[in-house]
Each structure stands twice: as C-alpha cells, then as structure tokens.
C-alpha cells in the first residue's frame, strides 16, 4: 500500500485501522485458543481429582492427542504475534523480557505436555497414581499460570492498539480465568 508522504491523510488512516483490526483479530483468536486450553486443563484436573481411578482408554488417548494438537501450534502463533508487537528496534528491556519469559514457559509446558501425553497413553489400572497426579497438576497449573501471564503481556504490548471489546475480553480472562465473562 502506498501512503502519502505528508503527516497523515485517509490512506494512512485506512492502513492504521486495518493493522489495528488484524492485531485485534489475532488476539481474539489466541483468547479462543486459551478457552480451549483452559477446558483441557479443567478436564485434566478432573482426572487428577478422580485418581486412582482412570477414565476409559479412548478418552485418555483423545486427551493425549489434544495435548499434541493444541499446544505447539498455539505457542507458535502466540510467539509470532508477541514478537510482531515489538517496535522495530526490538522493544524495551521489559518488553523483551516478557517475551523471553513466555518462550521459556512454552518450552517447559511443551515438555510437560509430551510427558503427560505419554503417561496418559500408557496409563493402566494399578499404576502409580501419585506420579500421574503430579504430572497432571504440573501441566494444568503451569499452563493456567502461563496463559494468565501471556494475557498480561498482550495487554502490555498491544494494549493501545486493541479495541475496547478486545481489551475488555483480555481483562475478563484475567479476572475470571476464562473469556466467558
């Protein structure tokens, strides 16, 4: 798109509005993924609470597949969005630290998800319920904390560029742990 060289005008306004709309849509898509991840965390917590009993094998296999299908692509999209929100100079030290912390948490969550998926796939009655319970809680507690931190980071990095509705959606997620507010 060609912009006027002067201080603004309609072309620049349309470009800025379009860019803001894209950021808004991408943030809303990530929030929708957070809703799906929170639902998965809720299901895993129910399993942890029900130990030593196990859900049927088909459900455990499905949960293991969900861990592999939801988490890595979500983390990739989130990292790309957060990085795109930094100014061209790389952002402030605090902004760079936010993103580095999230990247580190993504690695931890991915490892926990892989370990948990393997444990769910091979779980059987009589197995060490304490070990599975620990793995379940490590994953869903860490995942929930990570999502809250990511939502805070989105508010910090994209806040002025977000619509009021998207800003309110992120704030509701932080208040209630879900986008249903």
Automatic annotation (TrEMBL):
Residues 27-157 form the Hemerythrin-like domain. InterPro entries: Hemerythrin-like. This is Hemerythrin domain-containing protein.
């Amino acid at each position: 798109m060609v912009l006027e060289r002067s201080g603004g005008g309609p072309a620049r306004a349309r470009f800025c509005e379009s860019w803001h709309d894209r950021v808004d849509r991408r943030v809303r898509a990530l929030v929708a993924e957070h809703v799906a991840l929170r639902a998965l965390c809720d299901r895993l917590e129910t399993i942890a609470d029900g130990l030593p009993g196990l859900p049927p094998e088909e459900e455990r296999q499905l949960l293991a597949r969900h861990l592999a299908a939801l988490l890595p692509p979500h983390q990739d999209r989130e990292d790309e969005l957060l990085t795109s929100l930094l100014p061209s100079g790389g952002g402030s030290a605090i902004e760079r630290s936010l993103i580095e912390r999230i990247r580190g948490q993504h690695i931890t969550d991915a490892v926990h998800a892989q370990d948990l998926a393997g444990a769910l796939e091979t779980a059987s009655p009589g197995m060490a319920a304490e070990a599975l319970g620990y793995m379940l809680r490590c994953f869903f507690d860490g995942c929930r904390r990570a999502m809250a931190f990511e939502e805070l980071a989105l508010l910090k990095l994209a806040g002025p560029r977000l619509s009021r509705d998207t800003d309110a959606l992120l704030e509701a997620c932080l208040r209630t742990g879900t986008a249903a507010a």
